[in-house]
Amino acid sequence: MDHNDPARRYASAVDALNRGAWAEAQALIQPLTREASGHGGVWFVSGVAALNLRQLPLAAEHLDRAARLSPGRADYWAYLARALMELSLLGPALRAADTAALRPNKDAVTLEILGVVYSRVNAHEKAAVAFGLVAEQRPDSATAHFNHATALTALGDVAGAAAAHERCLALDPRYWKAHLALAQLQKQQPDHNHLPRLSALLADHGGDDGAAMYLNLAIAKEQEDLGAYAEAFAHLAAGKTAGRRQRDYDFGRDQALFDALIEAMPGVPDGPAGHDSARPIFIIGMPRSGTTLVERILSSHPEVMSCGELQDFGVVLKRASGSTTRLLIDPDTARRGAQVDWSRLGAAYIESTRAVSGARPRFIDKLPHNFLYAGYIARALPNARIVCLRRDPMDTCLGNFRQLFAQTSPFYDYSFDLRDTGRYYLQFERLMRHWHAVFPGRIHEVRYEDLVADQEATTRALLAACGLSWDPACLQFERNTAPVATASAVQVREPIHARSLQRWKRFERELEPLRELLRAGGVAVD
């Protein structure tokens, strides 16, 4: 083929793109981009190739050109939204996604991208619409139904999510993560559960680590619902062991990070004060300690909007630090991050959240692992409020071990081993003592057990610490209709109850090694 002919070169590049030959497509299209082409398709091919080659700034630049040259193309705007999302530019990503959504004739690929972007920016109603349309266009796609179910779960539509998961599994019984998601949707009953199906699948596919992880965890959840605690823990341990085999994890990596965070900020860093915005409320703490519950309480206040679990602070700190290491937070970033311009860092964070933080006076950033950044947040945003959740150490560690967190995040690798979970908890305690010492009075702690024992008094103290007036709606957070995209999506739609207190005692014998480890680390365990 004559690649000196621009039309033929473009056709060859499109063909390479359709085959997933990203480097070939990029090589073919580059001469056309150098000619300052006014053809939107040229920039689209180049942008999609760059996106798949993880050349994100180049992808965003070229896809932006494509969308502006061909503004009627929904797919161009959707891919631009995806590139911006990958760059953690969530506000621009949302605007691009909304532009795509307004365009006609959207195919399933475009709609799926929109669903992913909307989920990432906490626009779960829009995600549910997009994924629902994908499922209509692709009724034979198990993934389409799984994604729709996930979006419906965030909206609290348990029945709709269950039906969508069942459609997924009818198409592909080996869609392992759908089995776990279905088990977690609601409490299982003796006359209504999935144990026969799960047990049969485990017997046939238990040699596959991916299947063993999801199926064992699903069985553990349903067995615990039915009160078969010994059997539940055995399956929980088996599922987590299978998951750990799929990871290259050494606790020393996390130990080095905690050490670096403490060494990087032995006292209040020098330099001018940070940005003066008082809008953010950060909710931090170990996962599964009640952070989503407190988010729902605070976001029931008319002056507060929840933005969900934002990665923004870590992203802007990484950029400001100048660190070029692979991980978002690591010892290099911790050290360099303590030397930044604090006012610029705070301003960059506020700007990054502007498009998703709404018009209310205050907004919530509820990423539990922001406890790693608590000192940096305190310095960059001196008027922001920081709320840290605390829960019984044994219940906290069990909750982390029971949960299968986001598989692509490096934050949760410790949770696949009970001993690593306990050691991680001890480091969390150590780091929080350090932040309290360096920034006394900046972090308001809430005990989950206090919320359960005296909801009103604890809520009043929480609102006061956040500079918010009393509002009785905060006592009826279960009426809050905002979406929830965390592991607590089902539980936080119920009023406060005591059923989860001292859950660890159901597994007291199995958890004795954890108890001994925590005690040896100086943590009081009842």
List keywords for this structure.
single chain, five-stranded parallel β-sheet, mainly alpha, 526 residues
Can you tell me about this structure?
- The chain starts with 5 loop residues before the first helix and ends in a 6-residue tail after the last helix.
- A five-stranded parallel sheet has the order 2-3-1-4-5, with helices on both faces.
- The mean pLDDT is 93.
- The chain has 526 residues and is mainly alpha-helical.
- Helices cover 57% and strands 5% of the residues.
User: What Rg, in angstroms, do the CA atoms define?
Assistant: 24 Å
Residues in helices, as a percent range: 55-70%
- The averaged pLDDT comes out at 93
Per the principal axes of the C-alpha atoms, what is the gross shape?
A: globular
Helix-strand sequence: HHHHHHHHHHHHHHHEHEHHHEHEHHEHHH
Taking the sheet with the most strands, its summary is: 5 strands, parallel
First-to-last CA distance: 76 Å
The tally of strands reads 5
Strand-residue fraction? under 5%
Count up the helices.
25
Estimated structural class: mainly alpha
Give unreliable regions as ranges: none
| Strand order in space, largest sheet | 2-3-1-4-5
